Amino acid sequence: MAAEAEKTVKANRQGRVRTRRSWFATPLSVAAPERGTLADRCADAIRLRILTGKVAPGRRLESMRQLSAELDVSLAVVREVIARLQGEGLVRVRHGVGTFVERRQTDARSLRAARRRATRREAAELRQSVDPAVARAAAGRASSENVAEMHFALLERQLSMAGGDPANFTEADIAFHLAVAKAAGNGLGIGIHRLGARVLRPDLISRALEHARNHELAELHRALFDAIEHQRPGRAERAARAIAAIEARPP
């Protein structure tokens, strides 16, 4: 592949043809049996580009169709990879606009190894321990901007329930809990939340319909938001604990 890329460069120079080269035009292979699944290897390839600075923070990645063609994988694999990288905090998906490299990647670097080893059970247990404390802190520290972000995410969650899209519902749910973690003002709590989201995302997507139809869960999310908005730490803690317990139940 490297030889072909070099020939293309030479041919372009001789013919004075200027073409836009994709950021995947340099040697890249996902066929080599490096580790894990095809999605693992695709994620590693893109992750390496981001962490080594070959794709600058703030820059938009290629479209999913372009990535699918360049990596020679299906769109389903690309979607899984992008969702995974977003859970790691490496990229940010702006619907209708594109996928962008996040400007801050400290949390992603420090927790990357732990994410790969963590199991669903471990992530669920961690969440049940951490989420109540984070919610209590958020109820005492949330700014008006934090409250607005939580409110928006909660509305997105409610709208996604009607839309019937499991992935959108899950992303809105994760965004709500991330907003709660941000309101707590604890960087470690944000990192832990992202770790849990990374591990639990596939399970949450597969159970999105179940969770969307759970009226108790919907009321608890509303109760959590209300408690934080009105600065009631005890109520926020209880609501967060109940949510984590319900979502940790085995299918």
- Indicate the structural class: mainly alpha
Q: What is the total tally of β strands?
A: 2
Order of helices and strands: HHHHEEHHHHHHHH
Q: How many alpha or pi helices?
A: 12
- Helix content percent band: over 70%
The mean pLDDT is: 78
Strand order of the largest sheet: 1-2
Inertia-based shape: globular
Gap from first CA to last CA: 45 Å
Q: What composes the largest sheet?
A: 2 strands, antiparallel
CATH class of the largest domain: Mainly Alpha
As a whole number of angstroms, the C-alpha radius of gyration is 20 Å
CATH superfamily of the largest domain: GntR ligand-binding domain-like
Beta-strand portion reads under 5%
Q: What is the oligomer described by this structure?
A: single chain
Description:
The protein is mainly α. It folds into two domains: 2-101, Arc Repressor Mutant, subunit A, CATH 1.10.10.10; 118-247, GntR ligand-binding domain-like (Four Helix Bundle (Hemerythrin (Met), subunit A), Up-down Bundle). 71% of the residues lie in helices and 3% in strands. The chain contains twelve helices and two strands; from the N terminus they run ααααββαααααααα. It has helices at residues 2-15, 38-51, 64-71, 75-87, 106-117, 120-141, 144-163, 166-184, 187-206, 208-212, 215-229, 233-247, and strands spanning 91-94, 98-101. The chain has a two-stranded antiparallel ribbon with strand order 1-2. Strand 1 and strand 2 (98-101) form a beta hairpin. Helix 3 packs across helix 4 (75-87). The radius of gyration is 20 Å and the shape is globular. The model is unreliable at 1-35 (pLDDT under 50).
